[in-house]
Amino acid sequence: VRLVESGGGLAQPGGSLRLSCAASGFTFSSYTMGWFRQAPGKEREFVAAISWSGVNTYYADSVKGRFTISRDNARNTLYLQMNALKPENTALYYCAKAKRRIATTPLEDYDYWGQGTQVTVSS
Questions:
Q1: CB under 8 Å to 18, separation ≥6 — which residues?
Q2: Distance of CA 4 to CAs 20, 24, 75, 122, 123, Å?
């Protein structure tokens, strides 16, 4: 299993970034996928998840209405569109594969992780 994130960078408050995660080594369309993040000195936390079909999505309260998770099963790629970014969104963002099809949010329900892509929101 390999998960490779991209799209991170520096954004101004109120700006946007789109993260991508290229997946390989497993049947991407069969599993829930998620995004998590970890800020310096803090624990890794759930951001968003999407079911295998893309029909069901889940978000942390702090990002609802601003972030959108999506997937392209034909391209084995997961996305996170981040709008109206805030300085507190600064973190290392990780793509993760869930252990099963059904959408789930707890960190322990995910078994493979990417290396992460840094998002920094600052003026």
A1: 7, 79, 80, 81, 82
A2: 8, 9, 13, 25, 28
pLDDT above 90 for 100 = no
What are 34's two structure tokens? 């998620």
Sequence-distant (≥ 6) Cβ neighbours of residue 103 within 8 angstroms: 32, 49, 50, 51, 56, 57, 58
- Write down the mean pLDDT value for the chain: 96
Distance between CA 11 and CA 112 in Å, rounded? 28
- The span from the CA of 35 to the CA of 50, in Å, is 9
pLDDT in tens, 12-35: 999 999 999 999 999 999 999 999
